[in-house]
Design a protein that fits this description.
This protein has 125 residues and is of the alpha+beta class. The protein has 2 helices and 8 strands; from the N terminus they run E-E-E-E-E-H-E-H-E-E. A hairpin with a 4-residue loop joins strand 4 and strand 5. It is globular and about 40 Å long.
Length: 125
Amino acid sequence: MKRIINTSNAPAAIGPYSQAVEINGTLYISGQIPIHPRVGKIEATDISTQTEQVFANINAILTEAGYTFADVVKSTVFLSDIADFAGMNDVYKKYYQAECPARSAFAVKALPLGALVEIETIAAK
């Protein structure tokens, strides 16, 4: 049975989508950009701080759904500039040190609200 996940500790959806959907023991988290949930906008201007906010948002959704970073099996990273890969990766590796999830990373033309990074996450139990 499908379960919609929603928490006020992560940014509200800015379109017609859910923060996350769980079905059959798998959690699909929509791409998270570095919106600070209490402020409702992007405050950080550098890749490291934006990536930290993205992971705070992912953590809030994982927690609400009863998952942890250890349950993450796949991440997809979107960068507005591939030159920011190293800065993003420095933050990323703080969250995944052992049994890392599969990952793809892409440079894209632009991200919503001028974000530098967006991360989509899949977790499973």
